[in-house]
Amino acid sequence: MKLLSLGAAALSMLCLVVAQDGTGSIPTTTTASSYSCDPTTCKLPTCLCASQSPPNGLAAKDVPQFVTITFDDSVQPSLLATANQLLDVKNPNGCGAKGSWYVSMEYTDFSLVQQWYANGNEVADHTFSHVGSPSSQEIAAAKAMLHEYAGIPQGKIKGFRAPFLNYTAGTLSEISQQGFQYDSSATAVVDDCYWPYTLDNGMANDCWTGICDGAVKLPGIWEIPMYAVNDNASVPQLMDNYLAGSVSDVTEWSNTNFDRHYNGNRQPFGIYVHPTHLTNYPGLPDPSSLRQGVISFIQSLAGKPDVWFVSNDQLLQWMQNPVPASELANQSYMKCELPNTGKEICNGLEKIAISDVGLVSSSLLNTCNFNVASWGTCFNCPSVAPTLATPLPPLSVQSTDPSYRHPVPDNCDSIWWDPVAGQCLCTTASCAYKDVSVTVNTTTAGTTNSSKTATSSGAAQSAATTHENAGAVLLPTLSIGAALMAGAAAVLM
Ligand SMILES: [Zn+2]
């Protein structure tokens, strides 16, 4: 219960948060931690000590400068369009930039999640109802729905980010138990700007909260810290940093911080986005200039040698087997061939345009309509709206019905899977897939682990609340203002 002792300091930090989105209260220096790690015994590919230097002794000048652009919260048509605008740059091998999306369930259109995935991006877990210090059921329910309605193979849902970046020792243990590969909720400032590392020896970031006391050691689980940038006043900014100043100011200090990485030890550089803030909504201030500022910054990075825009999933594949930048183009995880399935199937890659935002979908989609939500899916609709307690309600069709959609099996990636015919169109080793993920029981997980989560909460969650803004959560398209206000109020609580 050591973590509960921050008290007043944490509360005063909370007060800073709401003034501005995701900013203002990250400590600029770390505190001493008991973290220790022996690199002679902790070795790749399964173990890596926290270090500011590139892995395996590679020289900084020889390693890629990775840029990770991540998106949080629900996936909706206009938000996906914004994300795709930001990612409209090429990597040195000619393949498009890829991103990671930490998806919460409410207002998410699962057909768009499948599109995002089918185009080579990463889909990760951000809980069912977007709560900090989440229960095991919050984490498991989201993973189950991403699999059931978006067809993401369970084993491809590798990452987790805590809402409000509000994670605890219990959260990290939970994602380990549920078969995730990594967490990306921690903050790295200048003096703990570590490359991603495994938690065999515990946490090495956010040590001011007490999380580095060595109580949590999770062999093989990776932490991908979120890399803060310092603004003009040397205040670390983490998420949505384009909200922290004028476009020209933000661009200037973003470049200064990027150069610190690029000309230094080339730790990954992050751009952490709530796409709601960069998307036009009727009746709200026009964010076009903000959006264009971010896009211009990204495009300027794309013009530099050895800069690669990758998902956190791709980053981790490199971390496990680091190669010089000169060899990155040929790594299988950096390639971008689309599958030739030989027939039009509902896999997220259909080229039939819908709506006015230029997104692709298909006449093959089902639409699931409920009082509170509707979404498209290549799979079966549930008979009632999913809830936290019952994320996978009974289906609306029987398995004997001609309209029944066959779920993705564990030996076929969804990009090759025809859910109408129930057929895997992958016939060669090059597309073979075997899902060996952990199965989590979503009907019972909610109650079994709640005590663990509760007891490990405290300073870590208080601190983290200062990072991920409360505004961009669960926004229905037409009530963003009210949701922003509700989010701010929630933080104050
Ligand atoms: Zn969020």
UniProtKB/TrEMBL annotation:
The UniProt record lists the keyword Transmembrane: yes
Organism from which the protein derives: Phycomyces blakesleeanus (strain ATCC 8743b / DSM 1359 / FGSC 10004 / NBRC 33097 / NRRL 1555)
SUPFAM superfamilies reported in the protein's UniProt record: Glycoside hydrolase/deacetylase
Transmembrane region(s): 470-492
GO molecular function, one term: hydrolase activity, acting on carbon-nitrogen (but not peptide) bonds
PANTHER family (alphabetical): CHITIN DEACETYLASE-LIKE 4, PTHR45985
Keywords, comma-separated and alphabetical: Membrane, Signal, Transmembrane, Transmembrane helix
Keyword tRNA-binding: no
Domain NodB homology: 64-182
A Gene Ontology BP annotation from the UniProt entry: carbohydrate metabolic process
Signal peptide annotation: 1-19
UniProt protein name: NodB homology domain-containing protein
